[in-house]
Design a protein that fits this description.
It is built from 10 helices and 16 strands. It has 291 residues and is α/β, with parallel strands linked by helices.
Length: 291
Amino acid sequence: MTGSSGLIGSALVRSLRDDGHEVVRLVRREPERPDEARWSPADGCLEARAIEGADAVVHLAGAGVGDRPWTRAHKRRIRDSRLLGTRTLAEAIASAGDRPPVLVCGSAIGYYGDTGGREVDEKGPMGSGFLAEVVRDWEAAARPARDAGVRVVHPRTGIVLARHGGLLGRTLPLFRLGLGGRLGDGRQWMSWISLPDQIAALRLLIADDIAGPVNLTAPAPVTNAEFTRALARALHRPAPLRVPRIALRAALRGFADEGPLISQRVRPARLEEAGFRFAHPDLDTALAGLL
């Protein structure tokens, strides 16, 4: 697994190990523990022993999208960290003697761009913008593994809600102080998923025979205004404020229009077809469980 120290990766490692699975964590430094192996995506280097005979490879590594303003250098970092890492893994898998049967290669609903109020599923067309282009090329970089006969699945993840980390973890302190509020006019759609459902869905993708893109979002997306009201209600705090679009654009530069201000109404059609049962199918249930 790559990206094992992130919000999703660390939770997935715990879940798998709790069930007795052995997880080898790919790290970019010198390994310090027996469960670590070194790789260098920038150089295309990966220790063969890390993937030979593995039951699955899970690729979740990538530079943070919304943790800093989108300078030209950071946009290059976002793109390169995904494409180079995916290509390194896919080529190593393709050349392995004892190939892993599946590559779960991280992706994002950014592929669909701004959908406005229109609902889209995995059959939806590619949208426009920097993130849509990154996701297109990110998924295409896994082609060597697909061409070698490996099942490749792309979990297109939405906003992952967790008590610690991610969007919810960052906004909780403000909402607890009564300083929460909607972003812009609040009409933009947010396609979210709780961290427990994210992990359960990833484990389904590892074990099932699904291939190609799969939306990892809850079946009930909400507008930003609805999210704001639901979180304020769960915390018993007011949320009277509004962050103007101009302030978000000044603070986040290009990310504002492809992050907090974008409208994405995404349906998890393939998860539903696979019979996946959401522990948190709606936002109120998710917030009650997480908080």
